[in-house]
Amino acid sequence: MLPKKNRVSTKEVDKIFKEGRFFVSPSFTFKYLKSTNKGVKISFIAPKSVAKLAVKRNLLRRRGYTALAKHIDQFPSGLMGVFIFKKYQDDISVIEDEIKNILTKIN
Fold first, then answer.
1. Count of structural domains, the chain
2. What is the CA angle 103-35-57, rounded to 5?
3. What is the CATH number of the domain that holds 49?
4. How far apart are CA 7 and CA 68, in angstroms?
5. Could you say which of 35, 56, 72, 102 is the most buried, measured as most Cβ atoms within 10 Å of its Cβ?
6. What's the pTM value of the predicted model, to 2 decimals?
């Protein structure tokens, strides 16, 4: 998991949903907002429509954070973002590839 300082708070998630831009990939949507802060804050959301059991939703979030940990330093500074899963993706390598694709679109 990412440290708490690198994850988005619920107030920031509301702000991202209201004012942010987004990118769409097959497994998830990335909504983001550029801010004046120096650090990068990114979180994962797994809605109930993707997985009914909380255990599976938490597993998705943990796999997302694991895949993101390798690429967190490549995101531009001052970025707040949220990855929202659209479907259940069990393979970490697929999640990592989609994070790379979104990263190339941002930069």
1. 1
2. 55
3. 3.30.230.10
4. 12
5. 102
6. 0.90
